[in-house]
UniProtKB/TrEMBL annotation:
This is O-fucosyltransferase family protein. It comes from Urochloa decumbens. Belongs to the glycosyltransferase GT106 family. One of its GO terms (cellular component) is membrane. InterPro entries: FucosylTrfase_pln (IPR024709), GDP-Fuc_O-FucTrfase (IPR019378), GT106_glycosyltransferase (IPR052272). One of its GO terms (molecular function) is glycosyltransferase activity. One of its GO terms (biological process) is fucose metabolic process. Keywords: Carbohydrate metabolism, Fucose metabolism, Glycoprotein, Glycosyltransferase, Membrane, Transferase, Transmembrane, Transmembrane helix.
Length: 446
């Protein structure tokens, strides 16, 4: 009932004469993507020129990739030129300014989460007009979804779903992944055109239907950073507890200090509330209960799973047709992406967005949210996403030693059935996850 239409504009281009906005986005590729879209929107709101965003180096992600290593800079600038002015560098005369000394550095602590546009007009615009430049450090989730003028909301959609295209290196390898997953069934679609660009049309669709295959993509958010930060316990005894505590002290020192002064919830309580990441052995129970057969072709997305092959044993046994980007691509095909976690995540994004069905294990994951939104925006209602209610799933899983399989299956299916339908974007919810709203999409009238 909905079709993409956030590419439509009915305004004049902003001249960006009030000054320059710079951002240094933190987090991984998904947090950075949201920050880019918000920066584009704020630039339009303040009639400012946007400098191509920079990405901060993270001791968790360990990736030195910058905007031009992941997205096509010239395409981004040209696609949005009817909306805002974008430049690759700050003008020379402004580069020597001490931004901290003149009060032009804005941190996440200076701007509340999901701040309203009015805050930027009141607080940031005077700095911009006075100093000609404002530099946002961080800027992940700093713009509200409601209330916001509809044309600005549409611009945010336009940036996410249209302006950000992966560089040819990522598109070409992504096309290889999709072709190996789908056989030669890979017909051109708006989604593939957006993800793969001209690369998508290179391989002609096969007329032989026997080599067509369908696949389920699963985002297993069970890397060590997620597991350690959750404060949950996963049955690995004292060795696991010591390893995760050491990781926390190294990567999450604030959390370690908080544990010393604050009584935090127990691991058992966190599990009962659905706050723990789904382990691979729990994910496999969910998939089997939904009805995915042993022969299902499954693509596993994500970085290195905590616990490695031992942790993946149950899901590998039940689903032998299990693949990852590491098993589908040759070492030489993977080599250009080694040590670049954001670029590897972009390959996972392509494989998950193009899948026949997509299942997430962590509904709070930014990656899963963006994939779900992409599939909703470009999928024409034909690309289902399985998104469990983790709290309700936890209450079922906690009884898995005593519950009969038939009852378990019935309860899980009912849970998924009740949580999978989102018809229109709920108020104040992310347009990146829920693009079905009149700012992003057009309703098809019968």
């Amino acid at each position: 009932m909905w079709r993409p239409c956030s590419d439509q504009r009915d305004w004049e281009a902003s001249e960006g004469t009030n000054g320059y906005i710079m951002i240094s986005a933190n987090g991984g590729i998904n947090q950075q993507r949201v920050a880019i879209c918000n920066a584009v929107t704020i630039s339009r709101l303040l009639n400012a020129t946007l400098v191509i965003p920079k990405f901060l180096y993270s001791n968790v992600w360990l990736d030195k990739s910058q905007f031009g290593d992941i997205y096509q800079e010239d395409y981004f600038i040209n696609y949005l030129k009817s909306d805002i002015r974008i430049v690759k560098d700050l003008p020379v005369e402004l580069q020597s300014l001490d931004l901290e000394a003149i009060g032009s550095l804005v941190n996440d602590t200076d701007v509340m989460k999901e701040a309203k546009p009015s805050l930027y007009v009141k607080k940031i615009l005077p700095i911009l007009l006075r100093n000609r430049v404002v530099h946002f450090i961080g800027f992940g989730n700093r713009l509200s979804f409601d209330p916001i003028p509809s044309d600005l909301q549409r611009l945010r959609c336009r940036c996410n779903f249209h302006a950000l295209r992966f560089v040819p290196k990522i598109q070409e390898t992504g096309a290889i992944l999709v072709e190996r997953l789908h056989g030669h069934r890979s017909h051109l679609s708006p989604l593939k055109d957006n993800l793969l660009g001209q690369v998508a049309v290179k391989s002609a669709p096969s007329t032989n239907k026997s080599d067509a295959s369908k696949y389920l993509a699963v985002h297993l958010r069970f890397e060590i950073d997620m597991v350690a930060y959750s404060l949950c316990y996963f049955g690995g005894g004292k060795d696991e507890e010591d390893e995760l505590e050491a990781y926390r002290q190294n990567h999450f020192p604030v959390l370690t200090e908080l544990k010393k002064t604050t009584k935090l919830p127990s691991a058992a309580f966190l599990r009962s509330e659905g706050k723990c990441p789904l382990a691979p052995e729990e994910a496999v129970l969910m998939l089997a209960a939904i009805g995915f057969k042993r022969s299902t072709y499954i693509y596993i997305a994500g970085a290195e799973i905590y616990g490695g092959k031992h942790r993946m044993a149950a899901i590998s046994r039940l689903y032998p047709s299990l693949v990852t980007k590491e098993t589908l691509l040759s070492p030489s095909e993977l080599e250009p992406f080694r040590n670049f976690s954001s670029q590897l995540a972009a390959l996972d994004f392509i494989a998950c967005a193009a899948a026949d069905a997509f299942a997430m294990t962590d509904p709070g994951s930014q990656f899963s949210s963006l994939v779900q939104g992409y599939r909703m925006y470009y999928g024409g209602g034909n690309l289902p996403t399985i998104r469990p209610n983790k709290r309700r799933l936890a209450s079922i899983l906690v009884k898995n030693a005593t519950i009969e399989w038939q009852e378990f299956e019935t309860r899980v299916r009912k849970l998924i059935q009740q949580t999978k339908q989102v018809h229109e974007r709920p108020v104040a919810r992310s347009i990146f996850r829920h693009p079905r709203c009149l700012e992003c999409m057009c309703r098809i009238e019968h």
